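Hi C.,

You asked whether I'd gotten around to modeling the 131-residue construct. I have! Everything is below, sequence then structure, no commentary in between.
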Amino acid sequence: MSGQAEMDAAKVLEQCISGEVTEANALPQLLHLHRSNSKAVVAALSEKANAVVQQADAGAAATRAGSFLITVATFLDRENFKAAAADPRPSGNSKGAQKSKVSAPVEEVCRPLLDHILLLSGGKNRAAKDK
């Protein structure tokens, strides 16, 4: 299942980067995929970040792709934060008859993506990861 979700996320990212799908259509699809399997979406974003770093000499195209990846990560974190803030947690009901479905917390996206990009590009006192 994880492989299929990662493939779906990678496909949506690729379609949007290539211009086949608008950003307005891709972001909700990625949000849905992220809520069902967050690790697969983060993995797909990391793979696209690899491609952007490897093809950085492409100029404007690489800049647009990198900017889109950051937009996706920011959108996912913002929407998940809004959903978590709007989710009323059940306050102890004495009757116990009413139970609400509480979804598991969804992983953050920006931080793992930033960590991955830092790994690729190097940082203070360390060299960039080899291609």
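If it helps when you're writing up: Helices lie at 2-18, 23-36, 38-54, 60-86, 110-121.

Thanks,
B.
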